[in-house]
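Reading a protein record of the kind used here takes only a little practice. Each token is a code from a learned vocabulary of local backbone shapes. With that in mind, consider the following protein and its fold in token form:
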Amino acid sequence: MKRYSIFIQLFFTTLFLGLVWPLSAIETESVELQNSLVIRSGYADLRTGDIAVRQGKGLISSMFSRLSATDKKYSHAGFVWVKDDECFVIHIEGHKANLHSDIIVEPVQSFISKKAAISYDFYRYDLDESVIKMLDGMFDSLEVTSVMFDDKFDLKTTNQLYCTELIADCLNNAVASPEFIKATDWNDLVYVSIGNIIGCAELIDKSLIK
């Protein structure tokens, strides 16, 4: 199956049925952060387990963003991961050169850079410290485990994941609740959208991030 074929078919099906609204212009936001973006004591500072979302560039990104039943502003997501006093985003993308794994760990500044994002935001769940520590351990394992991008978008596979599936799997396991993040069921196509991921999370005020 060609990469993204399921969602390309979904996109044109909904377009034919008149269910896809015209893509509105997305206002470009500033992606500047101060040099020090590490964990601190303030509430609004980023911490492990926060959700980083962005609107990417290109047709595929625009298509993915329309798949959310609610918030359609974002096309890609990952976890914030604070390690060694630095702040990263751990996420998964296809078409990468690494044949071992499609898991990516990159600085937050890179994930939200103007090259990668039209706009971005951060969201937070009210997680216990024990859950955050469990997520931290999961991220350690993901970094060294062979996990490939799931171009079939099949929720049944564990060694192949797409970005929102990775987040849902980690959170559902960390909080020991298979329905903490629920999937969308649309015409027998079951998938996890960014709207599913951030629906019950709190938007972090970016102006307060130190």
Residues 10-44 have pLDDT under 50 and may be disordered. The radius of gyration is 17 Å.
